Amino acid sequence: MKEKKKSSYSDFLIASGIWITTTLICLVVARLNFQESNLVLFYVLGSIITALNTDGYFYAVLFSLISMIAVNFYFIYPQYTFSVMDLDHVVSFSIMFLISIIVSVLASRSKMNERMAIKREKDAKQLYEISSKLSAAVSVEEILNISVTYFREMLGLQTALLLCSPDGMTQDTYLFCGLDGNTEVRNVLVNRNIVKCDKDSGKGYLIGNLYYEWPLVGSESIFGYAGFIPEEIEKRNPEDLNLISQMVNQVSLALDRNYFMKKEEEIRQENNEEKYKSNLLRSVSHDIRTPLAGIMGTSELLKEQVAHLPEAHKQASIIYKESSWLYGLVQNILSLTRLQNGKLKILKEIEVVEDVIHASIESINIRYPDQEIIFNEPTEVITAPMDSKLIQQTIINLIDNAHKHSPEGQPIEVIIEDNFDDTVSVMVKDHGTGIDQKAFSMLFSTFYTTHSRDAESNRGFGLGLPISEAIMKAHGGSISAANNENESGANFTITLPKHESDDKK
Question: Where is the Histidine kinase domain (predicted)?
Answer without folding.
Answer: 283-500
